[in-house]
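REQUEST FORM: STRUCTURE PREDICTION
Request ID: SP-0412
Submitted by: Lab K.M.
Chain count: 1
Length (residues): 320
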Amino acid sequence: MWITDHNVYVQGLDGYRYQGDRRVLLLAGEEIHDQVRQPQKNHLLVLEARRELAPLAAHPQRLIDAVAEAGGLAFIAHLVDPQAPLFHEPDLSWVDADLQGSFGVEIWNTMSEFKGHLRSIPRALWFAFLPDFSPTGPYPEALRRWDALLASGRRVPAIGGADAHGTRVRLGPITRTILPYLFLFRAVNTHLLTEEPLTGDAEADRRRLADALRQGHAFVGYDLPASTRGFQFTVSADQGEAGMGDALAYRFGATFQIQLPRPAQLRLIRHGVAVREWASTDAAVHTVREPGAYRIEARLPFRGRLRHWIVSNPIYLVPA
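STATUS: Completed
RESULT:
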């Protein structure tokens, strides 16, 4: 689990924490933004740089370059993050375009989506006390911007995050923790896929996890409606096989295989356009001949409406 405080990199926290036979690997990163800029924009999640880079906050391209030089990973935080004027919360979306170098994007942020619901006091109270009703899926504009990057030929891994703050608010006699941690850890998360299981060696395991994140060997899952464990998305062609985050060369066509833990609405998407849809299935196969970045979205009914359940990272098809 990576934790990222604002403009503060804290050393000495990394390592396993144990409770009986259960363990969690805690890793510290940093969420960097220019504190002088008004209105506030451009938050960048920096992982595995393992040094302070906040002095570069005013220069996003220089910051991304410095992260790469340090061997770290950079992810644009809450790519789309609308304002909530009723509570004096500003729009925190990313606005600098034409970035070069290696970076990923956070396409689904639980706190950002919660902010989008706060259009009246009754709605704010509803979602504060019933957070299960808040997550519905990534903002369409976030998906559009990600798909545009993929369509340009770039390899851009995506993550989802809690943006946990544990904020306690008071409204008259009512006090409430907004999006409590127990809810967040069961909600929108990034699921990493490693070639080998974790060993308990903190340094070896952090390298495995960072490599999976860097390569896009991951998917975003909303695990409250149903567990996403067992989800698979692969492709095979005459040149071999590949999974999420990988590129595969092909000559005659490529066949995608999708396995879901339970039946759901499913879409196979290329550059923002659905190339195949299934109303309800737990397994699907589809053959394509066009190159490009392909990803899937699965949705489930939950709390009275259809909600995103799984958003995969892309598989990149390249003509041999």
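NOTES: Residues 202-215 form the longest helix (14 residues).
Reviewed by: T.R.
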